[in-house]
Write a structure and sequence with these properties.
single chain, DNA Binding (I), subunit A, binds zinc ion, mainly alpha
Length: 127
């Protein structure tokens, strides 16, 4: 039994109405304090979510999807080979500096990687 529950049980057994009223007031105050704290935390979490969405939108505007023309130019520049291992199949267009790190969708920041090298690069950055 919690300390408060024990106090309530003791006050009830003694018929101590004043002690019960004091405990009720303490519990109400504690409840109000916790509710205010939860509201503050929820508001803070909501602010962070909005900030993150705004940041993602700004990033997306700077780094839109790779166009077909960019894809062709990067593949031609890289001679249709993975820049890491030279593979000629399962080629992906990769951001050298990841979009998440502020990399732009520009030819200079794009490279040809095979699926495996692309996966390994992602695993290294994320892991
Ligand atoms: Zn490769």
């Amino acid at each position: 039994m919690s300390d408060v529950a024990a106090q309530i049980a003791a006050a009830t057994a003694k018929g101590d109405v004043a002690a019960l009223a004091t405990l009720a007031i303490q519990l109400a105050n504690e409840n109000a304090r916790l509710c205010a704290l939860i509201e503050r935390l929820e508001a803070e979490a909501e602010r962070r979510r909005e900030k993150e969405t705004t940041r993602k939108r700004a990033r997306r505007a700077l780094a839109p999807d790779v166009t077909l023309w960019q894809r062709r130019d990067v593949l031609e520049r890289d001679a249709y080979r993975c820049r890491r291992c030279g593979a000629i199949t399962a080629l992906h267009i990769d951001h050298v500096v990841p979009v998440a790190a502020g990399g732009l969708t520009e030819i200079d920041n794009l490279q040809t990687l095979c699926a495996l090298c692309n996966w390994k690069k992602g695993a290294r950055i994320n892991g």
